[in-house]
């Protein structure tokens, strides 16, 4: 099922800012459960869900057979002129979109390991669907310039004699801090910038820009190795570990310190059935960490009962309310550790000021939305996952997150210091992947679950009937024996003499 976020990554001098969450596929379980229950009613055959090259789940896991869609919403800054005129205004944005893309993805370069794991890479493609979108890829969007923001953030603690020439260099090519480009360029095509072109030829600069364009999904479409390698448990040795990521990029630890950097959780595509667990862990490679979803409520989707898990206020807390989350800061309560509600993923994204939150800063500290006009957080924007608890079958997924860039005024970096507030987390865009089990697969799942739930009772009834019939047979036999005439012995004397 799973997908996150701001990426400054290099590939032969081509690097991209990128955002995606691993897709949360929910349909293959319905097929597997249905077949399993029809083939072996009395016991749910775990081997059918254990992943192997010959298992029933393999082909569906390797290549998702159902259409999936990614909805992207971009934030357009509407009061640039007032900001540049230094009027006493608040940064104002309007949401544009959704711009909808159909997703297809498959697992490639598979290696089956001896320790009940499989190593693979994700290959993803996105195709624009205009009839499902509200707008065109040619729509222009104005936001802050991520290149300038990244350079300033990287040099924020450097001495003045280093920052001053860099500021002069940036002003040679940019009049202000804002950038206007069409949706296609912001997302997949990438935006050319003369600063990037020149910086690539001067490795002696005090900062590194290892990309030739800026784009949220630039160089991501069709890439095999962009997400990195995943080593996942197949459930062969311990079925309760099915779908859990054991290693990412051949390591069991990411860039975050302590517990926050541990590689664990499912990518959302395979779940081992486990009744009553209070929390679920979803590993998001683009965050270099996992997201914890807590048990929320009981739900019924397409006539199937399940349990919904959702992101609560512990997600992106940074240790303010939940001390175990403080490891998402470089140091305990360091100067870059922001209020709760936004996760600093700059360590994961080559030092860029990338922060992840819920859309429109839902459930975040008021510190963030107080600096932005035009936001409209809604409870529907929360990250949710519903599971059927006996089989572990996902019933519905709503994965949605927002990408922001931190803009702090930096001494001598005048081009970066044009926002009215000296410390602003600027929303750039947010995305949603929403999938729900279809009526077709729901029918299959309901049939399978009915078989599973009613089979024990049917067996009990059949047992009672069988015992009853047996007892009735014995009763009839005994009754016939006791009602036999006295002149008709049970053992014939004639037969006895004959035998002599």
What's the structural blueprint in terms of helices and strands?
Elements: E1 9-11, E2 14-16, H1 28-39, H2 58-62, E3 68-77, H3 80-84, E4 91-112, E5 117-128, E6 140-144, H4 146-154, H5 160-171, E7 178-182, H6 183-189, H7 194-199, E8 229-233, E9 245-248, E10 279-284, E11 289-301, E12 304-310, E13 343-344, E14 354-357, E15 372-373, E16 384-388, E17 393-408, E18 423-436, H8 439-482, H9 493-499
Parallel strand pairs: 4-15
Antiparallel strand pairs: 1-2, 3-4, 3-18, 4-5, 5-8, 6-7, 8-9, 10-11, 11-12, 12-16, 13-14, 14-17, 16-17, 17-18
Helix pairs in contact: 1-8
Organism: Antheraea pernyi (Chinese oak silk moth)
Membrane topology: Multi-pass membrane protein
Keywords: Cell membrane, Disulfide bond, Glycoprotein, Membrane, Receptor, Transmembrane, Transmembrane helix
